[in-house]
């Protein structure tokens, strides 16, 4: 670690002091805790998801997965330089899309299933039309979105014509895909943006960052509505609660947390039994009662969000899990890993 000069250290201490004051004020105004209010609720059954299918096709680390709106098809991106669109019902490949750059870090399926987007260390976002083929027979590239000064870490479609991205240059960009132009471009965090999650109504979104914070944004505006503290290391992933009133996050600090937007604070913290793994990705069940996080050690941990208790651990991957994604209907959990596998948990 480089030595911090006294002036910078003073600013660090001042910021940390302000954050602690916010937390103390929130605690003083809280009339009860999440556990106290939910203590008399019944336990939920143990999560009994099993790895029913292994999607084989990638020949390098698989970094990202995302489902289409039909809950049947998903897209995965790998360092082998391929996007693969899968039919999760049959475990067959639907399309294989070769990429110009192998360093893909994020993928997204449009809700309609008509488009996929990807990006990574090539510092751009590329959009493909899965219903139209070019002369070589692969999905037609419709847009190459340039202008990033850092890697692309996350992207999500609002609809077929609009896309939001977060990147390693700390910026959030909104794109009009029909015109191929940015409609908004602004600094979102004080560090790399690592994760992005859209609200159920598509009107707001949450971002997580290396600066240890998460922020709430309105899709129409370029300034954040709320900032959430708590994590002690990088916030790697965020996931909106199905109610739209909260969200979950997970971090390198070996915790996952649940935040309530209306009370503007963290209401629960979840830890693995052994406290031996950081987390790379998180997902909430359609009821919001199960929280699942993928661990660096290769397991998926699940908690009862209400009782704040560890519920299950899903084992199968042989290396770091990079991403998990739940189908919109809540019936299938997909996970990607450095072991080159995509697993479907049902």
Q: What's the short story on this structure?
A:
This protein has 346 residues and is mainly beta. The protein has helices at residues 6-29, 34-38; strands at 51-55, 62-67, 73-78, 82-87, 92-98, 104-109, 115-120, 125-133, 139-145, 152-159, 162-167, 171-176, 181-187, 193-198, 204-209, 214-218, 226-228, 235-240, 246-251, 256-260, 265-270, 279-284, 290-295, 300-304, 309-314, 321-326, 333-337, 342-345. This is (Mediterranean fruit fly) hypothetical protein.
Descriptive notes:
The protein has 346 residues and is mainly beta. 8% of the residues lie in helices and 48% in strands. The strands form 7 sheets. Strands 1-28-27-26 form a 4-stranded antiparallel sheet, with no helix packed on it. Strands 2-3-4-5 form a 4-stranded antiparallel sheet, with no helix packed on it. A 4-stranded antiparallel sheet has the order 6-7-8-9, with no helix packed on it. Strand 27 (333-337) and strand 28 (342-345) form a beta hairpin. The radius of gyration is 20 Å and the shape is globular. Belongs to the WD repeat G protein beta family. Keywords: Repeat, Transducer, WD repeat. This is (Mediterranean fruit fly) hypothetical protein. One of its GO terms (biological process) is signal transduction.
Strand order of the largest sheet: 1-28-27-26
Measured distance between first and last alpha carbons: 44 Å
What is Rg?
A: 20 Å
Treating each run of at least 4 consecutive H or I residues as one helix, how many helices?
2
Helix content: under 10%
Number of strands: 28
Mean pLDDT across residues: 95
Structural class: mainly beta
How do the SSEs run, as a string of H and E? HHEEEEEEEEEEEEEEEEEEEEEEEEEEEE
Strand content: over 45%
Biggest sheet layout: 4 strands, antiparallel
Stretches with pLDDT under 50, minimum 5 residues: none
Shape: globular
Pfam families: WD40_Gbeta
Protein name: (Mediterranean fruit fly) hypothetical protein
WD repeats: 55-96, 186-227, 228-269, 314-346
Family: Belongs to the WD repeat G protein beta family.
């Amino acid at each position: 670690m480089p030595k911090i000069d006294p002036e910078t250290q003073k600013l660090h201490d001042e910021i940390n002091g302000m954050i602690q004051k916010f937390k103390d004020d929130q605690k003083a105004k809280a009339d009860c805790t999440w556990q106290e209010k939910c203590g008399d609720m019944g336990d939920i059954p143990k999560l009994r998801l099993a790895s029913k299918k292994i999607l084989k096709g990638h020949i390098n680390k698989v970094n990202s997965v995302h489902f289409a709106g039909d809950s049947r098809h998903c897209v995965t991106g790998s360092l082998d330089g391929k996007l693969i669109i899968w039919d999760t019902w049959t475990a067959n490949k639907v399309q294989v899309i070769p990429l110009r750059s192998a360093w893909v870090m994020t993928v997204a399926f449009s809700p309609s299933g008509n488009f996929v987007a990807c990006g990574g260390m090539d510092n751009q976002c590329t959009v493909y039309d899965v219903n139209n083929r070019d002369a070589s027979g692969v999905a037609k590239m419709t847009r190459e979105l340039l202008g990033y000064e850092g890697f692309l870490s996350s992207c999500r479609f609002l609809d077929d014509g609009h896309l939001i991205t977060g990147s390693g240059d700390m910026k959030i960009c909104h794109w009009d895909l029909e015109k191929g132009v940015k409609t908004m471009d602004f600094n979102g965090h004080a560090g790399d943006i690592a994760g992005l999650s859209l609200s159920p109504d598509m009107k707001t979104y949450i971002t997580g960052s290396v600066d240890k914070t998460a922020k709430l944004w309105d899709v129409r505006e370029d300034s954040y509505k709320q900032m959430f503290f708590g994590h002690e290391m990088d916030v790697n992933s965020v996931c909106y609660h199905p109610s739209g009133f909260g969200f979950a996050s997970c971090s390198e600090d070996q915790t996952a947390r649940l935040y309530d937007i209306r009370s503007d604070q963290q209401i629960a913290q979840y830890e693995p039994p052994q406290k031996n793994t950081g987390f790379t990705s998180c997902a909430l069940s359609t009821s919001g009662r199960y929280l699942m996080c993928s661990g660096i050690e290769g397991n998926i941990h699940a908690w009862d969000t209400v009782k704040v208790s560890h519920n299950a651990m899903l084992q199968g991957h042989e290396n770091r899990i990079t991403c998990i994604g739940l189908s919109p209907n809540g019936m299938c959990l997909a996970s990607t890993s450095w072991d080159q596998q995509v697993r479907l948990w049902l």
